[in-house]
Design a protein that fits this description.
alpha/beta, Undecaprenyl pyrophosphate synthetase, six-stranded parallel beta sheet, binds 3-methylbut-3-enyl trihydrogen diphosphate, binds magnesium ion
Length: 250
C-alpha cells in the first residue's frame, strides 16, 4: 500500500505538539485587516466570524478541551455606536446561524462578561444557547463578551464580601480558591496558552487572574487570517516553552 508522505509528515507534526487544555485568544486586527483591503471595519468583523468557525474546528480536531475567545471588551464601548451595534448584532447572528452546527459538533457554549447591561433580547439569546448546549460533552467554547477582567474580579470580591458580612464566609478562610470560584470562569481550568493576533503585545484586560501562569504567544497575522498554519505555529511555540511554575524546570 502506498502512503502519501505529505499526510504522514502532517500527522507526525501533529503528534509532536503539546496540546494545551485551555487556549485563550485575543482576536485582534479585524479593523486593520479590512483597512488593508479598502473595506469597512464591519467587513473585518464579518471575516473574523469565519476565523472563529475555523478555530472551533481546529480546536476540536487537535483535541483542545477549552477555547476562550475575547469578542468584546468592557472598554470596547469607547468605539463609535455603529460599530458597537454591529458587534452586538454579529454575536446574535452567530448564535442563531451556528447553533445547529455547534450542536452537531457537541460544543458546550458559555458566555462570560457583564450581561446585566446587555439588552434583554441579546440576554435571552445568550441564555438560550447556553441552555441548549449545556448537555454537550465536547469542546468548551467560552465567549468573552462585554468582558473585563478587572470588573470580573471586583464582582467576585463584592460577592465574597457580601457573604462575609452575612456570616456565610469566615474572612480568615478566604483563599485563592474562594476567589477563583466566584469568577465567571468557575469550573474551567486556567488557560495554558493565550494567543493574541495582529502583533499587539498586551492583555487588554483579558483573564488577568486566570492567566497568571499562561504562556503568551503573539502572532503578526490579523484575526481574519488566523488559520491552521498560524494555529500550529502557536502550538509549536507553546510546545517549546519550559513551564516552570516557579520551580527549576525540566
Ligand atoms: C478585534 O479587531 C475585534 C474587537 C476588538 C471587537 P479590532 O476591531 O480591534 O481591529 P483593529 O485592532 O482595529 O485592527
Ligand atoms: C482587545 O482588543 C479586545 C478584544 C479582542 C475583544 P482591542 O482592539 O479592543 O484592544 P486595544 O484597545 O488595542 O488594547
Ligand atoms: Mg484592536
Amino acid at each position: 500500500m502506498s502512503v502519501n508522505p505529505a499526510i504522514v509528515s502532517a500527522a507526525n507534526e501533529k503528534s509532536s505538539l503539546k496540546i494545551p487544555g485551555h487556549i485563550g485568544i485575543i482576536m485582534d486586527g479585524n479593523g486593520r485587516w479590512a483597512k488593508a483591503r479598502g473595506l469597512g471595519r464591519a467587513e473585518g468583523h464579518r471575516a473574523g466570524v469565519e476565523a472563529v468557525r475555523r478555530t472551533v474546528e481546529l480546536c476540536i480536531s487537535y483535541g483542545v478541551e477549552c477555547l476562550t475567545l475575547f469578542a468584546f471588551s468592557s472598554e470596547n464601548w469607547r468605539r463609535p455606536p455603529d460599530e458597537v451595534n454591529f458587534l452586538f448584532g454579529l454575536l446574535r447572528r452567530f448564535v442563531a446561524s451556528d447553533l445547529a452546527r455547534l450542536m452537531r459538533q457537541n460544543v458546550q457554549v458559555r458566555i462570560i462578561g457583564d450581561r446585566a447591561s446587555l439588552d434583554p433580547g441579546l440576554r435571552a439569546v445568550i441564555e438560550d444557547v447556553e441552555a441548549k448546549t449545556a448537555g454537550n460533552t465536547g469542546l468548551n467554547l467560552i465567549i468573552a463578551f462585554n468582558y473585563g477582567a478587572k470588573s470580573e474580579i471586583v464582582a467576585a470580591v463584592k460577592a465574597i464580601a457580601a457573604k462575609a458580612a452575612a456570616g456565610e464566609i469566615d474572612p480568615a478562610a478566604i483563599d485563592q480558591n474562594t476567589l477563583a470560584t466566584h469568577l465567571s470562569t468557575v469550573g474551567l481550568p486556567d488557560p495554558d496558552l493565550i494567543v493574541r493576533t495582529s502583533g499587539e503585545m498586551r492583555l487588554s484586560n483579558f483573564l488577568l487572574w486566570q492567566s497568571a501562569y499562561a504562556e503568551l504567544v503573539f502572532v503578526e497575522e490579523n484575526w481574519p487570517d488566523f488559520d491552521e498554519s498560524v494555529f500550529v505555529r502557536a502550538l509549536r511555540a507553546f510546545t517549546e516553552r519550559d513551564r516552570r511554575f516557579g520551580g527549576i524546570g525540566t
